[in-house]
Amino acid sequence: MVTPAAKGRTAHSEPDYIARAEVLAETFATRAAEHDRAGSFPFENFRELSEAGLLSLTVPVAHGGAGAGARYAARVIGILGKADPSTALVLSMHYINHLVMARSPTWPARLSRKLARESVEGLALVNALRVEPELGSPARGGLPATIARRTETGWRLSGHKIYSTGSPILKWYLVWARTDEAEPRVGQFLVPAGLPGTRIVETWDHHGLRASGSHDVIFDDVVIPLDSEVDVRKPADWRVPDVTQATIHTVFVGAIYDGVARAARDWLITFLRQRVPASLGAPLATLARAQESLGAIEARLAVNARLIETFARDFDDGVQLSAGESNVIKLTVTNNAVAVVEEALSLTGNHGLSRSNPLERHYRDVLCGRVHTPQDDSTRIGLGRAALGL
Fold it and tell me: CA 78, CA 385: separation in Å to the nearest integer?
C-alpha cells in the first residue's frame, strides 16, 4: 500500500548530492587512517558536508532541505562508509532523526522546524542518546536511570549516557529519560549541547569506528524548557516499535558496513593483481582459488546492494514494512559485510593484518556492525517466536 506522504513527495536533484558525496569521499578516505590511529574526531569532514549541503539531505523541501528519502540517503551513507565509516555513522544518525521528524505525528512541529532550519543554515547535527551503563540498550527493555524532573520553570535532567555517537560535534541531543512522576513516563527530551551541567567524558577507545566520538555524556541537573518534551509516554506504550525509525535505522546501518566491505574488496583486487610471489611467477589474481574467493565476495555484495536498494525504495514509496523484516535486512547485510572482509583476510594472510595496509582497519570497523541494535540474537529469537506463534 502506498501512503499519501509518499505520493506527495517533491522531485529533487538527488544525483547532484550523490556526486558531491563522491567528491568528498575521496578526501575523507585520505584522512581516515590517521583519525583511526589517533582516535580523533573528523571535524573537518562535517564542515565540508555542511558546505556541500549534505547535512540537510533528508530535511523536507518545505524547510529548505533536499527532501531526499531513504534510497538516496542510503547511497550517500554507503559512499561515505566506504571512505570513512565513523563519519558515515554520525551522519546516518543525523539523517535518521530528520526523516523521523518529518514523518512522525508525535514530533512537535515547532521543534522539528527549528532543527530543520538549523541543519540547512549551518553545522547543526542531532543524535539520540539512549544507552546507559546499567540499562544498556533500551531496545532490550527496562527503564532508563536518566530522570527528568518537572518544575514550574522547566525540566531538570540528570543522567549518564554512553556510546553517544558524534558527541564532540552534536548541537542537539535527543535524551531518552523517565519522568519523576508517580507513574513514570518514558521518552525523548530535546537538549541543546553545552548547557550548564552537561559534560562530555572522552571514554571512546574502541576496536573499530575509532573516530566516531562515541563518548559518555553526563547531565547533572541540566535545565531545559518545559516544551522540550518530544515524545514521552507510558512505558507500555513503547512496546510497539516505531516502524519508521526501525526501518531506516537498519537500512542505513547496513549501508555503512556494506561500504566498509566494498573498500576491502577494492583493496583486495589491487593486492591480487599486484602481488607476484616468487614461487608462482604470476599475480595471485591468476589463481583459481583467488578468483573463486573474489566471486564469493561479489555474490555477497550483490545481495547487499539489492536488499538495501529495494528496501529503501519500498520505504520511500510508502510500502507497509514490518520491524521484523527490517531487522532481517540489518542482520543479512552486516553479516555479509563481515564475511566479505574475512574472505579478503583469508586470501592475504599477514599482509591483510598489517597495520600498514587498510584491510586491518576495515576488519576492525566492519565487526562493529554486529553490535548495533538490533543484535543478531534478538532478530533470530523474534523470528523464531513469530514462526512458532508465540
Answer: 32
Q: Are 221 and 151 in contact (CB under 8 A)?
A: no
102 contacts 48 by C-beta, under 8 angstroms: no
pLDDT at position 10? 40
CATH 1.10.540.10 fits 4-124, yes or no: yes
Coil, strand or helix at 164? strand
Nearest of 95, 75, 68 to residue 10 by alpha carbon: 68
- For 159, the enclosing helix (H) or strand (E) is strand 155-164
Domain ranges of the chain: 4-124, 129-238, 243-388
Q: Which of 189, 154, 187, 191 is nearest to 170 (CA)?
A: 191
**At residue 380, does pLDDT exceed 90?**
yes
How confident is the model over 30-45, as pLDDT tens digits? 999 999 999 999 999 9
Rounded to an integer, what distance in angstroms lies between the CA atom of residue 21 and that of residue 103? 25
- At a CB cut-off of 8 Å and minimum separation 6, what does 371 contact? none
Instruction: Answer for the pair 159, 145: CB distance below 8 angstroms, yes or no.
Output: yes
pLDDT at 52 over 70: yes
Per-residue pLDDT at 9 exceeds 60: no
Helix (H, G, I), strand (E, B) or coil at 233: strand
> What is d(CA 99, CA 121) in angstroms, rounded to the nearest whole number?
18
- Give the β-pairing of 147-150 and 170-179: parallel
How is domain 129-238 classified at the CATH fold level? Butyryl-CoA Dehydrogenase, subunit A; domain 2 (2.40.110)
Give helix then strand counts, H and E, for the chain: 12, 8
Residue showing cell 542531532: 126
Task: For domain 243-388, give the CATH number.
Answer: 1.20.140.10
